[in-house]
Amino acid sequence: MELRHLRYFIAVAETGSLTVAAERRLFTSQPSLSRQIRDLEDEVGAELFNRSARGVELTAAGKAFLDHARLALSQVDAATEAARRASQPSKQVFALGFLTGQEMTWLPRAMQVLREELPKIDVTVSSHYSPDLADAVARGKLDLAFLRAEPGYDLEYRVVSREKLLVLMPSDHRLTERATIRPEDFGGEPFIMASNKAAVLHQVISQYLRDNAIDITPEHGVDNLAMAMSLVASTRGLALMPEYANNLLPWSVVSRPLEGEAPTVDLVIGYSKANTSPVLKLFLSRVDELMEPLRTAAS
C-alpha cells in the first residue's frame, strides 16, 4: 500500500465522486483513479465504496478505514515537517493558528507570552476555520492553535475561555427592540444553523434548542461566522453564534443576548504531544498568563 492510495481514497471519500475527485482534487483521469481505488480495495480485502449512478458512498469498512487513513497521512506530514525544520536549525519557527476573528483578542496575549523569545524565533500567524486548524496542528503545519476542541484528532486541548452564545439578527429586525431574546422569540423566524462541519458549535446549539423545546427547522447551514453574518443580513434570519462575533459585525447585523443562562462554547488551545518544539513547551508553561486579563476583568 502506498501513500498515494490513501490520498486518493480520502479525496474520493470527501467529494463523494470519482469524477470530481479525479478532475478537481487529484488532476488525474477518472479511469486511472478507479483502478487505484480497486487496487486499494484488493489490498485491504474489502470494498470501501458502494458505487451507483449518483456517485460513491463509503461502506462500513470504508468508514472504518477513513479515520485511520487520515491519521496515517497526518503522521507522515508531521514527520516531514519535523524533518524540514530540523534541517534548518538556524532560527526556530513557531507557527500559531487562530479561529478567524479570535486573533484580535488572543494574538497580542500570545505575543506577550513569547516576548522574551521573539528575538530568537520567527512567529508565523494564520487564521482558518476550526476543523482546518485542528488538521494543520495534527499534520505539524502549526505548533499551536486557538480553536474548538475538534473530535477525531490526536491532539491535546486546554480551555482558555468560555464564550456565551448570542443571537445575531438584521439591524432593522423587529426583535432589536428587545433587550434579551427568549426561546419563544425564535418561533416563525428563519434560522441559520452551524453545520456539522462546525461540529462543536453545532452540538452546543442543538442542545440549547432541545433544552428549550425550540422546534425549528434550520433553513441554512454555515461553516463559519462570516457566512452566518452574510445569511443573517440577506435572508433576515436569526443565528446563534459565540460572543466574539461582536468584534466582526457589519452595520447590517446586530446582536442581542439570550434571556436567562446562555449556553457556552469553549475556546481551547490545541497542540500535539508529539511536537518537541522547545518554544511550544515554553508557551504551554506560561498559558496562565493568557487568561490573566480575563481573571482581572471578572474580579
TrEMBL record:
Gene3D superfamilies assigned: Periplasmic binding protein-like II, Winged helix-like DNA-binding domain superfamily/Winged helix DNA-binding domain
Keyword DNA-binding set for record: yes
Tree of life domain: Bacteria
Listed SUPFAM superfamilies: Periplasmic binding protein-like II (SSF53850), Winged helix' DNA-binding domain (SSF46785)
GO MF annotation, one: DNA-binding transcription factor activity
Any GO CC annotation of this UniProt entry: protein-DNA complex
InterPro entries: LysR_HTH_N, LysR_subst-bd, WH-like_DNA-bd_sf, WH_DNA-bd_sf
Domain HTH lysR-type: 1-59
Similarity comment: family membership: Belongs to the LysR transcriptional regulatory family.
Family matches, as PANTHER family: HCA OPERON TRANSCRIPTIONAL ACTIVATOR HCAR (PTHR30346:SF0), TRANSCRIPTIONAL DUAL REGULATOR HCAR-RELATED (PTHR30346)
Protein name (Swiss-Prot/TrEMBL): LysR family transcriptional regulator, hca operon transcriptional activator
Lineage of the organism: Bacteria, Pseudomonadati, Pseudomonadota, Betaproteobacteria, Burkholderiales
